[in-house]
Each structure stands twice: as C-alpha cells, then as structure tokens.
Amino acid sequence: MLPDALVAEEPVNHCHKPEVEAQWQQLLADSPEDAVVIRLYALRDGLCHMVDEGLVDLEQAIDIFNREHARSVMGQVKEDNEKPWDLALWQSATGADCADRPARRLSRTLHD
Hints:
By secondary structure, this protein is mainly alpha-helical. Helix content is 66%, strand content 0%.
C-alpha cells in the first residue's frame, strides 16, 4: 500500500456544481466588458462541454483551464505594472497631496 502522499487524488469536476456556476454567472454579470472574464468563462464552458462529450478527459481540461487562468492573471499583472503612474488618481484614492510627501517638502525647504 502506498503512502497517502503518493496516491493521486481523483480530480474534482466543478462543471455541474450549481454554486460554482452561480459564481461564474455573477462574475460575468459584474464584468461584462472584461475580456479576461469573458475568455475564461467561454473556455470553462467549452471545456465542460468537451468533458461531457468525452472529447477530452477531466484532468486535461483542468490543466488547460488552470494554465490559461494563470496566463490571464499574469498578463493582467503585467498590464497593470506597465500603466503610467497617475498622480491625480493616486491623490483621489489616497486623499493625499503632493505637498504632503516628504521629498517635496524637503525640496521646497532647500530652495526657499
């Protein structure tokens, strides 16, 4: 008998779980213009259909979805990091003023 750590667990099929489907429906309703959400929703729907039809096995479908999900998340992080820093957005989000920043105060003190 193999130790529990060496026994592969059966993959869980989340395709027909009502609570998971409701979460995806809500995510799509909350972000109808988000290309990442739309793409992942469509991928999930298509993979679930393919598993049901026996065209791909569950493990392969899970692997495909997980890779695309990770790629989408990493792409979003990269895109967010490449956006220029927006001073006005920072000020409105934090309620701070550039004059509140120590470097700005120090600069003014040295030039006065």
